[in-house]
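Backbone-to-sequence.
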């Protein structure tokens, strides 16, 4: 997260009657966020503002390339702009050209990997991230990108290794901590998860997702008050994420405030009519 951070999950029973069911819903809530993408970082496509995908900007980049047809950086930048504009085939073509001009252009490999990932070609994306790492073993962005692929494929040990490597390289990319936090959370290591989510928040305080993630771990530890604060902050930062509203609703439900819960569930359903935890929660609380 502009940025939309990778998200995920978790649980733990509490003392309130019915809380095991609620905790399970919280787990499903955040697991649905696991496929969201968080893209940050300097010269890479992951850090280019969405405005750079505008027709006006692409036109300017066309002029740059006409004046510098042998400049790999120009193709890398335009490829990134094409990627932001959703023009995946054009983006891949430009990254290919950049790599033909400079076979060691590791940023172009990482940018092409992101396009392949968005196209669902995870094998090629992983290969490109690995090639970027082979060229530059200090390149934190590639470890984070490949780690995200591993995490989404359920290869948590490999994902953890990549996030650990990025963190050991002193990355300032919040995704490394956020996603390591998700793995700790998946393993019910909630105190470690909270520490990582807090670091992610300090690095990227305008991102809603780490607040949702940290809130889930607070719930798992029985700390509904801090969880509620985090879910409310997540909504303030980005009120268009259905999971945030559903998570808030679950706390209301924990507290027996069914009318408020139903209102928040309804907002989540409005944002994402197919989001099952919100639909189920609304069915439980509507008219209660």
């Amino acid at each position: 997260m502009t940025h939309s951070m990778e998200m995920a999950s978790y649980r733990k029973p509490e003392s309130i009657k019915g809380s095991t069911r609620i905790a399970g819903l919280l787990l499903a809530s955040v697991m649905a966020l696991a496929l969201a993408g968080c893209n940050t970082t300097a010269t890479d496509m992951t850090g280019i503002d969405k405005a750079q995908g505008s027709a006006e900007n692409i036109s300017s980049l066309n002029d740059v390339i006409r004046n510098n047809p042998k400049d790999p950086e120009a193709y890398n930048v335009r490829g990134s702009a094409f990627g932001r504009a959703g023009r995946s085939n054009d983006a891949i073509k430009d990254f290919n050209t950049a790599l033909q001009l400079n076979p060691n252009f590791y940023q172009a490999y990482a940018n092409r990997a992101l396009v392949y990932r968005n196209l669902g070609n995870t094998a090629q994306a992983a290969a490109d991230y690995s090639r970027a790492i082979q060229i530059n073993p200090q390149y934190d962005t590639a470890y984070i990108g490949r780690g995200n692929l591993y995490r989404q494929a359920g290869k948590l040990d490999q994902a953890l290794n990549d996030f650990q490597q990025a963190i050991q390289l002193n990355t300032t990319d919040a995704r490394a901590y956020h996603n390591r936090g998700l793995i700790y959370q998946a393993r019910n290591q909630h105190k470690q998860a909270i520490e990582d989510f807090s670091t992610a928040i300090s690095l990227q305080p305008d991102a809603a997702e780490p607040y949702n993630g940290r809130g889930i771990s607070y719930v798992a530890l029985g700390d509904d008050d801090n969880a509620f604060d985090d879910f409310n902050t997540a909504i303030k930062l980005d009120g268009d994420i259905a999971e945030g509203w559903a998570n808030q609703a679950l706390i209301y439900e924990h507290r027996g405030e069914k009318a408020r819960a139903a209102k928040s569930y309804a907002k989540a359903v409005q944002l994402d009519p197919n989001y099952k935890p919100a639909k189920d929660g609304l069915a439980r609380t509507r008219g209660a």
